Every structure is written in structure tokens, then in C-alpha cells.
Amino acid sequence: MSDASSSLTIRGARPFGADPVDVVVRDGRITEIAPAGSTAAVGEVVDADGRWIGPGLWDAHVHFTQHVVRRSRLDLTRTATADDVLAVVGRALEGRPLATERMLVGYGFRDALWPVPASLAALEAVAGDAPVVLVSGDLHCGWLTRAAAARLGVAVDESGLLREGPWIEALHTLDSSFSPSMQEYREAADAAAARGVVGIVEFENDDNVAAWPARVGAGVTSLRVEAAVWPNRLEAAIAQGLRTGDALDPTGLVSFGPLKVVVDGSLNTRTAWCWDPYPGADPASPHACGMQGVDLPELRRLLERARVAGIAAAVHAIGDRANSEVLDVFAELGMHGTIEHAQLVRDDDFARFAALGLVASVQPEHAMDDRDVADRHWPGRTDRAFAFASLHRAGAQLRLGSDAPVAPLDPWISIAAATARSRGDRDAWHPEQRLDLDVALAASVRSSLAVGEQADLVVVDRDPGSCDRDELRDMPVAATLVGGRFTWREI
To answer: Which InterPro entries does the entry link to (predicted)?
Structure first.
């Protein structure tokens, strides 16, 4: 399959905020944009019937396999307490021969606000000898029985919780034992296309360089993919001569992305690395202010190694100390790149993003998921938490994403969260940090509606500029095109 497609004319589509036009596509690129009805038809003619058209949407932070396998895992996202989780697990185990079944895996608990903490005893009182693994909603923590821990080659203490480095390795081992089918990957990619997505940045801890070309070859062709590499595969990528932006497959859909380095933990797991201790933490604990994923000398070594090899860097930093330290390392190396998440930032650090040429890759729906957790665990600092407008005003380039499966792989949800800072019946949380719609849209695309651009397009039924918050979240998508090829179509 080539990225080029047959010729196409889209009649009577309205660019966001403009009069209707005809858009002509040849060989995967936009070759003409003219007032509606003024062009000669070229190739297939599609009547947009006055719908709105714009550049296709990107999700700048995805863990795609985690997103795919979430569908087959026990849903814990509606739980609010440990007892809620245990009730769901208990119902799932009813009638099962406990010790002989394959592992029961759940996803989506968030324990940061639980009145009673997790414990191994409570989980095993429900699970008995069954191997049960429960994955936290932020992916940084697991709640395991001893039977499951033994299968994964780890040990758990009396809490039953495993966090950060040891957990990330255990989660990778777990995922390796659950191999989604190509049909499941295709369905997930097609579902993203149905929401207007034309591309993702893949941060799965996997051999993405090999996996994604194989998926495209097997028919997973709805998305462009920038495939990141983790430190344990960096040297292999360098040995292959790979540089960021290199094509990884003949279709042009998959390209080599950045080096992903995780510097700290997460807010929900209370491991984001902060300047101030978490409320109630033992001041003598080495983790009172969170945890480092890699130490700073190793971060410098990795980034310098990547820079020399022509590989960009994307560094996970959530806490304000993590962001400060990562900014320092980028400054020392004179290196551009991306800071992933940037959830808590010191006032003095906002301007440094732009000064250093760094992109802030943020996930607006996390602010909606975590507002109460931030109020509890980052008290007195939430005016600079998920501070998208502060980053934008300081000149930082923003990219929006989901961190799927942590939030839905749906850019319209991200755009609505960024512009409204609310959902459901709740008032806006720190409304001063709302983004204007044009800023949020610009942070969600990689191209423009212009002659010469790739024909990565989305056609929607509503004018985004006239939508309220919930209309944005539920935006009806009529068509999505990648390189002029329909990947989703209802027109």
C-alpha cells in the first residue's frame, strides 16, 4: 500500500470559520483549494454538504498495546474505594477454579483518595490462591496477590502494591503474555480514525521499530505512527543507523520517533518528583517528595547519546522538581526535545520551555481525572498544575495527547478538557488555565489545510467554534483521510 491515493475532490466543505471550498487531492497531497463550485471535478467527487473540514488530528502520547488490551481487562475505572475494587474482583472470580485459571487482570483503580489503603490481606481474602493483578489507572502501580507476583517474578509487601521501576518491568512481563491479535489492533486503530485521528506518537515499552511495520503489513493502516524507543533498545536503534524521522516501512505510515526516558513517577501513585513532600509522608523517607525513574547523570548520558545519533528526546517529567531538573539537563546539552506531561511546573520554569525550544506534551483530560488528587496531594500549588495556559503564554509549543489508556484516545475529549477545564456537572477547575480553541486545535495537528500539505484531513458535522464543551467532547466525525485515503467515512 502506498501513501499516495487516487484523485479526489471534496465539494462544499467549510474550513473552520471560513466559507465553503472545494478541496482537490492528488497523490496524497492537497493540490487545490478554491471557492465551492469553482473547480473542475478531479477523480472521485465527495459532497461534504457544508460540513466543516480541517487538518487531521494527532494524539501525541499513546501506549497503544495497553490501549488495546484494556478492552479485555476487568474494568475498575468506576471504583472509588478499595472495597469497590474488591467487590468487582469478587464478582469476576465467582464460579472460577481459583488456582488453575490464568491471571485475572483488572485495569483502572486509582487509590490516591481511598479512605482505607490497599492491603495484600484484603485482596487475598477475596482472591484466595488465584493470581490477580490489578493495574492502576495511571499505569504506575499494581495491586497483586502473591500468586500473581510469583508468576511475574516479583515480590510484594503487606500492602500488595508494587510501584514504579519494579512494577513497570512486571507490567511489561504481563503484557508479553497477552498478545492482542492483529484484528484487535485494526479495530483499535479504526476506532481512533473514527474520531478524526490521523496519527499517534507511540510510547509503548516494546520493540516498536519492529512491531509497527509488521502491524501495517498485516493491515493496521488507519494511522500514522511515530514509534519511540526506550533506553533498553537505544543502542540497537543506533546500530541500525536510525534517526528520528526515518521511515520504518514502505508505506510511509511509520517513522522512527524519539527516545523515551521516564524521570519520575505519577501524581496518583504519589511518586511524581516534587520540591515539596507529599502530605503525611515521613520526612525521613527517601521518597517523601516522590521518586526518580533514572538518576540525572544517566539522563544526561542517554540524551547526549541520542543527540549524537540524531535521535530526539521525549522525557517524562510530572513533578515540579522533575521538570526543573530535566530543563537543566536540556539546557546543559543545548538540545531540543519534548517534556511529556509537565503536570506541575515552578513559576520560574514556564518561560524556560520556550527559551530552550522544548515542546510541552500535555494530556488535558488528566486535569479532569486528577483535580481532586491534586488538591489533596499538591495543596497550595494547583495554580501551576496542568497549567496549559501558563505554558502557552510563556511561549511554549504545546502538543495535546491522551496517554491512552489512561485517558480515552479521542482528541476531541482532550480539546474540550483543555478549553473548558470541566466535565459533568462540575465548575471549571482553575479556569485561568483554559486554552483558547484555536490554540488547542493547533496543538492537536501536524499539518494545515493548505495547498502542498499532506491530505491528512478530518470532516466533522459541527463547527468547533460554535460548540459548547459537551458538543466538542462528542464531536460527530463524518470522515477522516490519511494521505487522501479514507480511513473513516460516513459521507
So the answer is: Amidohydro_3, Metal-dep_hydrolase_composite, Metal_Hydrolase
The model carries a pTM of 0.95
pLDDT tens profile 257-266: 999 999 999 9
**Shared domain check, 304 and 238:** yes
CATH number for the domain that contains residue 363: 3.20.20.140
SS3 state of residue 371: helix
Q: For residue 100, what are the domain limits?
A: 73-176
Q: Summarize the confidence of residues 418-438 as an average pLDDT.
A: 98
Distance CA 4, CA 414 (A): 30
Residues 488 and 413 in one domain: no
* Residue 94 belongs to domain with CATH number: 3.10.310.70
Between the alpha carbon of residue 241 and those of residues 148, 315, 329, the distances in Å are 40, 22, 25
Q: Is residue 372 domain-shared with residue 266, that is, in the same domain?
A: yes
Crossing angle of helices 320-333 and 296-308, in 10° steps, is 40
Give the E-state strand segments of 171-293 in sequence order: 197-202, 224-229, 254-262
- Give 2's DSSP letter: -
Q: Are residues 337 and 252 in the same domain?
A: yes
Please answer whether residues 320 and 378 qualify as being in contact, where contact means their C-beta atoms are separated by less than 8 angstroms.
no
Helices (H), 75-199: 82-93, 120-127, 146-152, 164-176, 182-193
Looking at residue 311, the DSSP 8-state letter turns out to be: -
**Res 3: pLDDT:** 44
Per-residue DSSP letter, 135: E
- Residue 6 sits in a domain whose CATH number is 2.30.40.10
pLDDT for res 16: 85
Residue of 263, 261, 210 whose CA lies nearest to 232: 261
Q: Which residues pair with 359 in a beta bridge?
A: 338, 397
Peptide bond into 131 cis (omega under 30): no
Tell me the three cell numbers of residue 234: 537505544
Q: Is residue 415 within 8 Å of residue 362, measured between CB atoms? A: no
